[in-house]
ATP-binding cassette domain-containing protein
Amino acid sequence: MTPSIDAATDSDTGTGTATGRSAAVSCTRLAYSFGETTAVDGLDLSVGEGEVFGLLGPNGAGKTTAIRCITTLLPVPAGMVHVFGHDTAKEQMSVRRMLGYVPQQLSADSGLTGRENVALFARVFDVPRKERAARVAQALRAVDLTDAADRLANTYSGGMVRRLELAQALVSAPRLLILDEPTIGLDPIARTSVWEHINAVREATGMTVLVTTHYMDEADQYCDRVGLMHRGRIRALGTPEQLREGLGERRRTEGAPATDPLPTLEDVFRDIAGSGLEDQSGGFRDVRSTRRTANRVG
Ligand SMILES: Nc1ncnc2c1ncn2[C@@H]1O[C@H](COP(=O)(O)OP(=O)(O)OP(=O)(O)O)[C@@H](O)[C@H]1O
């Protein structure tokens, strides 16, 4: 099993100096293409320290690609990415040490117990040997898996697997937690539970959270700010309330009655993504995401 962020060998000595920027994540004109397909197209993004920032967008908007550049799993061919002031192109190891990453794909090994899965990540992320057992126990406790810690992961429900993956990402005490669709395919109770655990850790540690989600209700409820991404760029940015009010205001200037209810975040999303939302939802990529989750549950 390969952990989501491998221990890397690169020229970074780990002594890179932060440039003094206060942003947890800063992308400047980030661009990434797969052959002819432009996935990220000049992305400018700044996530403040301690924020819960939601990156929203239809399938294929470029969210995962942007996240993989931020985590250093993909190179940055154009533009710049900094994590707490460290340049991801030059200081790959320093950046990786500050990150916890829960990818869309399954990152837990079904043939290991919960504790063994988390311990594996503790080793890969260089948690000092003497502290490992305590840190693993702490991470499992933080996601409420202490009682199930010594069961094989293939006996876990989908929600428990997601919480286990959260524990794997938390065991290195990251300053920045990046989650790609953390609740996709989970039932409403399991979704709420995942968010409650993320929030509890954030409140206790001040960790910054960058999350992608298709669930607008989650973004509205849990994110301090959201960026709506479409065709590789951020098309709208603000608090969920600002975005909802902005669309409401525009609709009123276009003649909508003042008595109309305030638009939802989903209305804002549809306003920006337009037909892209209709064109791409339910496609192969969507099915693949759901299957990935089904495999996890199964
Ligand atoms: N490995 C790859 N090879 C070729 N094209 C890719 C690859 N990964 C992504 N793409 C393309 O890049 C674009 C952006 O994909 P990306 O996965 O970043 O979007 P996304 O917003 O994360 O979508 P989703 O919400 O479905 O996860 C899409 O057009 C996609 O088809």
